[in-house]
């Protein structure tokens, strides 16, 4: 079974989308995050209705009850692990592969233009390659998928910088991985991204 993980956080004012607070205020940034997460979950539900995947939400902030009340009791929720984003992604991928998943993809909730076609393309490309990446305009990525656990792609990366995508590609080249790319899309992380 193929697996899709949504990485998000509970929309707590002051702790959510903090880089957008100068433009939107604490309440506005949390509300923006809430809407983006709900849009992403709706898309994933639609995708899962037509494509054979299991899904889970890896969250930080809040608790399981708050998450279920917010996004629905029909979804599987897991707390994100500790450490930097790479540690948390690696732990989530490892957990999914240990459960026997055959291909695992993770997305965030910052990409307005994520579509059913892109999700479909990601899983189809994983049938040919070791890794699929959706590059973001800011130098990061909005999607990563693996056909097997490759912990190195999450190590030694300067998370939250414009180097994430290129550093990941460099690791892939060093490991001789078959890399599949998706269209480049915009992530919304900073006030200038809101246009």
Brief characterization of the structure:
This protein has 195 residues and is an alpha/beta fold. It has a single domain, classed as Spore Coat Polysaccharide Biosynthesis Protein SpsA, Chain A. The protein is 38% helix and 19% strand.
Describe the structure.
This protein has one domain (2-194): Spore Coat Polysaccharide Biosynthesis Protein SpsA, Chain A (Alpha-Beta Complex), CATH 3.90.550. Strand 5 and strand 6 form a beta hairpin. By secondary structure, the protein is α/β, with parallel strands linked by helices. Strands 3-2-1-4-6-5-7 form a 7-stranded mixed sheet, with helices on both faces. It has 5 helices and 7 strands; from the N terminus they run E-H-E-H-E-H-E-H-E-E-H-E.
Q: Which helices and strands, and how do they pair?
A:
Layout: E1 2-9, H1 21-50, E2 53-60, H2 64-71, E3 77-79, H3 85-98, E4 103-107, H4 116-126, E5 131-135, E6 141-146, H5 164-174, E7 179-181
Number of strands: 7
Q: What characteristic shape results from the CA principal axes?
A: globular
Question: For this entry, what is the oligomeric state of its chains?
Answer: single chain
H/E element string?
EHEHEHEHEEHE
Strand residue content: 15-25%
User: Mind telling me the CATH superfamily name?
Assistant: Spore Coat Polysaccharide Biosynthesis Protein SpsA, Chain A
Sequence of strands across the biggest β-sheet = 3-2-1-4-6-5-7
Low-confidence stretches: none
**Helicity, as a percent range:** 25-40%
Which features does this protein show?
alpha/beta, 195 residues, 7 strands, 38% helix, Spore Coat Polysaccharide Biosynthesis Protein SpsA, Chain A, globular, 7-stranded mixed sheet
């Amino acid at each position: 079974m193929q697996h899709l993980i949504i990485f998000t956080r509970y929309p707590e004012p002051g702790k959510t989308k903090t880089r957008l607070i100068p433009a939107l205020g604490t309440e506005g940034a949390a509300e923006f995050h809430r809407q983006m997460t709900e849009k992403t979950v709706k898309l994933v539900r639609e995708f899962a209705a037509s494509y054979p995947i299991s899904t889970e939400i890896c969250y930080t902030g809040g608790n399981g009850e708050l998450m279920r009340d917010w996004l629905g009791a029909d979804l599987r929720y897991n707390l994100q692990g500790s450490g930097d984003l790479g540690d948390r992604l690696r732990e989530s991928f490892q957990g999914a592969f240990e459960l026997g998943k055959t291909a695992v993809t993770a997305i965030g909730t910052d990409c307005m233009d994520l579509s059913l076609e892109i999700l479909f393309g990601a899983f189809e490309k994983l049938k040919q390659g070791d890794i699929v990446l959706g590059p973001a305009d800011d130098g990061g990525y909005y999607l990563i998928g693996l056909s097997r656990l490759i912990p190195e792609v999450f190590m030694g990366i300067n998370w939250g910088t414009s180097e994430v995508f290129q550093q990941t590609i460099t690791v892939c080249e060093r490991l001789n991985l078959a890399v599949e790319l998706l269209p480049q899309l915009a992530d919304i992380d900073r006030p200038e991204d809101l246009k």
